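Bump. Still looking for Guanine nucleotide binding protein, alpha subunit structure tokens.
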Amino acid sequence: MTNRIRRWSRALPRIDAATARSNDITEELKKDRVAIRATRVLALFGGPGAGRSTFLRQVKLHSFGYDTQEREGLGVSIQTSMISALRLILGSASISDDPAVQLALSSQEDQLLLVDTIQQRLAVPLVKQVIEASPQFQADPSLQYMMGAITRIMTPRYAPTDIDILHCKFPPAPPIVEIPFKPPLRGLIEHPMKTTVVSVRCGNGLQRKWLSLLGDAEAIIFLVDLSRYDQSEYCPETDEQLNCVRAAMREFEAICNVPLMRFDSAVVIFNKFDLFTEKLARIPFTECFPEYTGPNEAAAAAEYCTQRFQALYCVFGVRQRNIRAYNTNSLDVDQTRVTLQEIMEYIVRLRLRIM
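Sorry for the wait, here they are.
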């Protein structure tokens, strides 16, 4: 009897460490598949200068926010960026002959020395005029904002506010950025599915190269910088200069006609609407869009652009109706909060209708 038990035990398959690890990985993959099915993706697109990075920061602020550790890291990045910009401006400005400025520029360790020097020299009207006349200062709204808050930003235990995070520049983001999206819904039952906003770095058709990874996106969010309606940009595909808004329309149409994309809806956000409104008083909309026959007003011009994007919205060659358009300023916290709430409510209603 004992011999039979021994032979039977030898016949049993033995699970070694490698097999056990393989089984654990299989179980983890099963759990990941379940989690993926419970997660929906919103693909974020937009041309250069459309404000995608700022929009992503708004998504994070109004979804789960930045914790203390993240704010400390962002604070260090803001201070470092500010120091680099100040060194560059002072090194190229005529006030660089000032002995105190030269000492500050040569200091590599004590960054506060440079800040103190700047604060002292800003009290002199001539120095302030030199800095404000710098081409880099004029072309960089972020630097203008930081210079206005230099005393607060350069404190030893500086923690950036929400406005600081939205205004200041940070190092380039990775090619693909994923941000969980969960803004508070107003009187609407929350859908159990998780939502993630995925952004792809733009440039020379790079967004379309990554579309194979976004084929299952539930919807797309396309940002357009309306304030550049009077500017043009180089289009490498056709080797020509193209109006910035028309280039955005072409990119939107190209994305919508990719067979891999199966999204159910599209959201077009006309960003920097405040700058667009101010510029219309100086440059009529018809100078760049002569076919436009409406009044030279921001709301009417934006509605015309909405109709143009609506006409371009195709999926598998079929015209679609599920498109929403919003006019926003990505630096306005309250306005963007309302916009994100409306977008999420729209997406939830689509899910409930589909399911």
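The chain has 16 helices and ten strands.

Edit: fixed formatting.
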